[in-house]
Design a protein that fits this description.
Layout (H helix, E strand, L loop, with lengths): L21 H4 L5 E8 L8 H8 L7 H13 L15 E5 L2 E7 L3 E10 L4 E10 L1 H32 L4 H4 L9
Antiparallel strand pairs: 1-5, 2-3, 3-4, 4-5
Length: 180
């Protein structure tokens, strides 16, 4: 193979490029992943809405709920605490990306849910820093199922948000309030 074949190819079409806030806190992750889906034409461009909807336990596929329940039951075997309901709480929104984060004794993770309205893409970027043998052991099965789970959750959310324009106004209000 010649050195010329290893050089980046130029294209008349710009390839998607992005940066993510997940790499601010975890610049050298032990593991990272990006899942991208097309932004449905009628869907909101609000990354906070996308983050809430992707990680809402009300809307995840049943098989994902079952895996999460299994995880909750088994983590104690390696000395990891079960997670609470606020695991996927949004920490901040910066431009086109909502950031979620959690730190624990076995691992730290950051998730960025970004909406690129210009390229009509939605992405979920994950970065993980492992701590010790518990983190490495815990992450062996997680590494195998993370991609399919995130793809399923993101695809389901894209279908749902693509059908209902205006869903964002219901999620940005305090619980119990109705849009005026």
């Amino acid at each position: 193979m010649s050195d010329e074949s290893r050089e980046p190819r130029s294209s008349s079409v710009d390839a998607p490029r992005f940066s993510s806030g997940v790499f601010v806190d975890i610049p050298r992750p032990a593991w990272a992943d990006v899942v991208v889906v097309p932004l449905p034409p009628r869907a909101t461009r609000d990354p906070e809405v996308w983050a809430r909807e992707v990680f809402s336990m009300r809307h995840v596929p049943l098989w994902v709920k079952a895996l999460f329940a299994l995880r909750q039951g088994l983590v104690g075997l390696v000395g990891v605490d079960p997670v609470g309901h606020d695991l996927f709480a949004i920490r901040s929104v910066d431009g086109e990306e909502a950031l979620l984060a959690a730190d624990d004794r076995h691992l730290d993770f950051r998730v960025g849910v970004g909406v690129d309205a210009g390229l009509n893409l939605v992405r979920v970027t994950t970065a993980v820093r492992l701590h010790g043998w518990r983190g490495r052991l815990y992450f062996i099965p997680v590494r195998l199922v993370h991609g399919p789970i995130v793809r399923a959750m993101l695809a389901r959310t894209a279908r749902r948000l693509g059908r209902r324009r205006g869903l964002d106004r219901f999620h940005l209000r305090s619980p119990g309030s109705l849009p005026g």
